[in-house]
Write a structure and sequence with these properties.
Blueprint: H1 2-12, H2 32-41, E1 51-53, E2 59-61, E3 70-75, H3 82-98, E4 107-112, H4 120-129, E5 137-140, H5 147-154, E6 158-161, E7 164-167, E8 170-174, E9 180-185, H6 191-204, H7 212-223, E10 225-228, E11 233-236, H8 238-274
Parallel strand pairs: 3-4, 4-5
Antiparallel strand pairs: 1-2, 3-8, 6-7, 8-9, 10-11
Helix pairs in contact: 3-6
């Protein structure tokens, strides 16, 4: 119950406040507790292999992102405050994570749920307004008939209002197999909030066949990073790097000693047998 209360409090700060002013009748609102339950229930669920359109109107299957962690954000392009703010915050978090993880390690997807208005053209304009141009970040438009099934699969809730939409704010973190790993709530995404689940997934991913040594070095590099709240980005923890180097040097010295001792023992045995 305590965990649920904490998440409920976080969610209350993470909902889009799409209405302004006073109205004679109370506008519809999103059920916060229900939205949280649906969001949490989606953890562990496989992402459907839906086909969406990118900003060039080319079909993209969600399964094409498997093999790398995926960050998914639902937006609507007609929003003038919350969605741009959330996307800008996600953009800053991505820039902070790219300094250590690198854009080749994961993908980001923004999905427009207000169809048919969130068309490929509208999504392209939205990305340009936010000055987002990343090879690993796609802005996608689902078919209108598939929006409900897609949002339910991700545990994303939204409610139409006279001024737009009330909707859950956050990012869904998907693992390399296409399964929902976690939900990160809030309109102020940080490299710390998204970087930790991302680092967990990168460190847990199987080593790439044929590139085992390179993958292992990359994993150690990621392991030796910490979040710096002053810069809002990840940096190398040189103390940890030195500890790893020291531990590795100790291991190699012990191994060398054991091999040398074994070689001396075998040499001594051969000399004893050869003696008259």
């Amino acid at each position: 119950m305590r965990r649920f209360a904490e998440l409920s409090a976080a969610l209350a700060l993470s909902l889009s406040l799409a209405g302004a002013g006073t109205m004679a009748a109370e506008p519809p609102a999103l059920d916060e507790a229900q939205a949280l339950r649906l969001s949490q229930a989606a953890i562990g669920r496989m992402v459907p292999d839906a086909v969406l359109l990118d900003t060039r109107e080319q079909p993209v299957r969600l399964s094409s992102f498997r093999g790398k962690p995926l960050l998914v954000s639902f937006i609507y392009t007609g929003c003038f405050q919350i969605c741009p703010t959330q996307t800008k915050a996600l953009h800053e978090a991505v820039k902070g994570m790219d300094k250590v993880f690198g854009p080749h390690q994961y993908n980001v997807v923004s999905i427009g749920f207000n169809q048919p208005f969130d068309s490929p053209t509208a999504m392209r304009a939205f990305a340009a307004q936010q000055r987002i141009d990343y090879p690993n970040w796609a802005f996608l438009s689902p078919p209108a008939a598939g929006v409900d099934a897609l949002t339910r699969a991700f545990g994303f809730s939204y409610q139409a209002t006279p001024a737009g939409f009330d909707h859950l704010l956050g990012v869904t973190v998907v693992d390399t197999q296409g399964r929902i790993h976690s939900q990160v709530y809030g309109d102020r995404m940080t490299a710390a909030a998204l970087g930790e689940p991302l680092r967990q997934l990168l460190n847990a991913a199987p080593l790439t066949p044929g590139r085992t040594l390179e993958s292992l070095v990359e994993r150690v590099r990621i392991l030796c990073t910490v979040y710096d709240p002053e810069t809002g980005a990840y940096r190398y923890d040189y103390k940890l790097i030195l500890e790893i180097i020291g531990g590795l040097a100790f291991f190699l010295s012990v191994l060398a000693h054991l091999l040398l001792d074994r070689w001396r023992h075998r040499r001594g045995t051969r000399f004893h047998v050869a003696s008259p």
